[in-house]
Amino acid sequence: MNKWMVKLNSLSYPQMIALGYFLVIMVGTLLLMLPVANYNNMSPGFINALFTATSATCVTGLVIFDTYTQWTIFGELVILTLIQIGGLGFMTIITLFSFFLKRKIGLKERGLLKESVSTMYIGGVVRLTRKILLGTLLFEGAGAILLSIRFVPKMGWAEGIYNGIFHSVSAFCNAGFDIMGKYGEYSSLTTFSGDAVVNLTIMALIIIGGIGFLVWDDLSKSKFHFRRYQLHTKIVLSTTVILIAVGALCFYVSEKDNLLSEMPMSEKILASLFASVTPRTAGFNTVDMAKISPAAKLLTMVLMFIGGSPGSTAGGIKTTTLAVVMISLWSSLRNMKSENVFGRRLEENALKKASAVITVNLVLVLSAAFLISATNVNFYLSDVLFEVLSAIGTVGLTIGITSKLNSFAHIILALLMYSGRVGSLSFALVFTEHKIPSTIQNPTEKINIG
């Protein structure tokens, strides 16, 4: 026992977080393999259960089976629990129990919490965690009430409230799991495409969950005084608004004569906004994704790759990564000595970190797309790329090929979902991180770039 404890204490924070998510996934897999979790009273098989548990824990939403028709109430509650743990981070959940037990939170746990919620300072991390838990309860509760108001008349009291809670948690955690299979397998929220309350509530939950806990904290302190916000908050909010607006406009232009052609204008606007919000990174859909145009498919893939913001329930390379690269590009084009935005200068290694995140994600995406395409030759490369980007961005949107892929592809997608939730760069660091960095530097020599 002591030997194992020594090994555990020697792990770095990214390694401990990766191990924690792995253990949660394995427990979820075993529970979903139980006959009581399946309507046919038979185990779905290890790979299928592992894929579903990974998708739920990594708040993705890709599924091999339709959630409503495959899993019993017990199975759905297992999935919902995994979503909540994955959305908040397992360390946040552990801290919640520490609060209840009135147990002191040690320095090691505070360090893990700092890494888990992506805050920049260890000081105040426990207070931030308490705020995260209370905020989650508030937003998910409000979302459940609003959704229940629309679901109860259609489904009845018990089922309507249950659906309200399930979809509120799934939306806030950016998971994309739905239990709307009663209206058609894999139908997601297409039945409610014209319902403004459902659409706006789901979108609000996705955005609130996806902007990040650090932004929550800053907004609660500075309220509506934009000038007082930290640079991180300013970049996240500005980039989020731009992506939603540009994404909605581009989706409308590309689909106005296709999927949106028969809708009234109000529903077109709702559908376009929803299609812009959900790829970052929730996975719900109010239109049939298998019928979108090539332009809309490309737009969705770009949005899935970008994802949400750091320290949130979302995946992707993150809005700040995109912002840093664009700010650096603009500075290079103007031949400026530093990267400046909102009257502040970015830290010197910001571009290095952003480049590393993008590069690792691209390597994983291209490698996975090659492996899946090589072993599943009946699918278009664009559809495989869509699936791969959806997995690594922990989105959950699909063109409809997830259940048709072979077991090898499902394992690849599960690994992508896992790396996307842990963080692709953190996932790489799990295997490459050294405790003591080398202080030796080689001589500098210039090379031509571009």
From TrEMBL:
Main localization, broad class: membrane
GO CC terms, sorted: plasma membrane
Keyword annotations of the record: Cell membrane, Ion transport, Membrane, Potassium, Potassium transport, Transmembrane, Transmembrane helix, Transport
InterPro entries attached to this UniProt entry: Cat_transpt (IPR003445), TrkH (IPR004772)
Pfam families: TrkH
Transmembrane regions listed in the UniProt entry: 12-34, 46-65, 77-101, 132-152, 196-215, 235-254, 313-333, 354-373, 379-401, 408-431
UniProt key word NAD: no
UniProt GO molecular function: potassium:chloride symporter activity
Subcellular location: Cell membrane
Keyword Transmembrane found: yes
Membrane topology: Multi-pass membrane protein
Protein name: Trk family potassium uptake protein
